[in-house]
């Protein structure tokens, strides 16, 4: 863990119940870390994970970092209040989006498991991407992120299955999405996370069947 303290934080109003994963969306790790430490930018995260697996610690987990912005998940708004934010170095869709290297994903997985160990209130359904909580404006960490592998290691939810489809938007709302946004934005955010090989943005049968399967995971008794 490499200390890289950011001044961009304040006090939390309560506990922690969410883990939000982002990509940096900048051309270099150095530029991203500099911005997250710039008091003028007024953005930050708790951690940054570089492509080589190096982990930078910017904000103490007990403090509120400024990474989620206007956001919503499972009835909770403004997720900065109750979340840990991890930025993962990747140029993003604006600068030549690429797959996340295995060494980087291993470091992300290990860091997430450590965070979950410290904050047991972060249940699997509350491990989300920035695009999940802000589908109208964010795409990260995107369709190349290995959500399947992360869930296999014990971080977050995944389903490779399909279930009898119901009302798609109703299922997406039950999973956690804010369905007050344009339907296409919400659907493609779901697809980026749970159906990355099928970014149609459409309320088609494949998407509805996967959403029903994910909802079944969430609805299953603990």
From TrEMBL:
State the protein's name: N-acetylmuramoyl-L-alanine amidase
* Key words, A-Z: Cell wall biogenesis/degradation, Hydrolase
Q: Which InterPro entries match?
A: Amidase/PGRP_sf, Amidase_domain, NAMLAA_amidase_2, PGBD-like_sf, PGBDSf
Q: Which organism is it from?
A: Acidocella aquatica
Similarity-based family = Belongs to the N-acetylmuramoyl-L-alanine amidase 2 family.
Return the EC number: 3.5.1.28
Q: Which EC class is this protein assigned?
A: hydrolase
Q: Please report the stretch or stretches of sequence annotated as the N-acetylmuramoyl-L-alanine amidase domain.
A: 4-142
The chemistry this enzyme catalyses reads: Hydrolyzes the link between N-acetylmuramoyl residues and L-amino acid residues in certain cell-wall glycopeptides
Specify the superkingdom.
Bacteria
> Which SUPFAM superfamilies does the entry link to?
N-acetylmuramoyl-L-alanine amidase-like, PGBD-like
């Amino acid at each position: 863990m490499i200390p890289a303290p950011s001044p961009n934080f304040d006090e939390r109003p309560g506990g922690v119940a969410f883990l939000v994963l982002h990509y940096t969306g900048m051309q270099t790790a150095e530029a991203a870390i500099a911005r997250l430490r710039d008091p003028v930018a007024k953005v930050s995260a708790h951690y940054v994970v570089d492509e080589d697996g190096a982990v930078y610690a910017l904000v103490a987990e007990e403090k509120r970092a400024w990474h989620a912005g206007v956001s919503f998940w499972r009835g909770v708004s403004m997720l900065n209040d109750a979340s840990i934010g991890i930025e993962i170095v990747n140029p993003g869709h604006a600068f030549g989006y690429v797959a996340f290297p295995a060494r980087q994903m291993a470091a992300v997985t290990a860091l997430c498991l450590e965070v979950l160990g410290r904050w047991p209130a972060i249940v699997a359904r509350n491990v989300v991407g920035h695009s999940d909580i802000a589908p109208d404006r964010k795409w990260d960490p995107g369709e190349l992120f290995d959500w399947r592998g992360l869930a296999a290691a014990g971080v977050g939810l995944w389903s490779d299955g399909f279930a009898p489809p119901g009302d798609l938007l109703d299922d997406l709302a039950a999973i956690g999405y804010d369905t007050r946004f344009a339907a296409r934005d919400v659907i493609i955010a779901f697809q980026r996370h749970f159906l990355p090989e099928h970014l149609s943005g459409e309320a088609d049968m494949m998407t509805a069947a996967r959403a029903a399967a994910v909802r079944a995971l969430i609805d299953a008794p603990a």
